[in-house]
Amino acid sequence: AAAAAAAVRAGPVDAAYKAIDGLVRVDAELVDYSVNSVTEGIQALATTRVSIRPTGAMRNEAYVEKANGFGGKVQRTFSGQGADEDIVVSSARAYVAALNKMIGFLSVVNRTTDSSQRPRASGNDVVVSVM
């Protein structure tokens, strides 16, 4: 079943993100946002890259053990990348890609009962996908 949402915010990208949040019902904090032009001209292709981390009830579920052997935990971030001629569409694609990664990770963590099998953080701990 298709779902639709609308939101009024400070700008079109923020409104798109809040509308997506209303559909997926997962709390996320935007950590980083960047837009670059791939081509030139009036119909230039924009690529957007975002990084997010979970907030709210799932905030504590995204902490993973450091992989460098020094112990401790680090909060994982999730990134996504999108491309389109429209910056809002490019931004929405990047945000959805990052949310999909975060939701997938959290569902695996929640199914894991043995903490020794919990995912470990890599050195960079950011995964990028190209849509």
Structural commentary:
The structure is a single chain. The protein has 131 residues and is of the alpha+beta class. It has 2 helices and 5 strands. The strands form 2 sheets. A 3-stranded antiparallel sheet has the order 1-2-5. The longest helix has 25 residues. The radius of gyration is 16 Å and the shape is globular. It starts with 11 loop residues before the first helix and ends in a 20-residue tail after the last helix. The C terminus is likely disordered.
Mean pLDDT: 79
Low-confidence segments:
117-131
Overall helicity? 25-40%
Order of helices and strands: HEEEEEH
Question: Key terms for this structure?
Answer:
about 130 residues, alpha+beta, 3-stranded antiparallel β-sheet, two-stranded antiparallel ribbon, 2 helices, about 30% helix, globular
Question: How do you describe this structure in short?
Answer:
The protein is an alpha+beta fold and 131 residues long. The protein has helices at residues 12-24, 87-111; strands at residues 28-37, 46-54, 63-65, 73-75, 78-84.
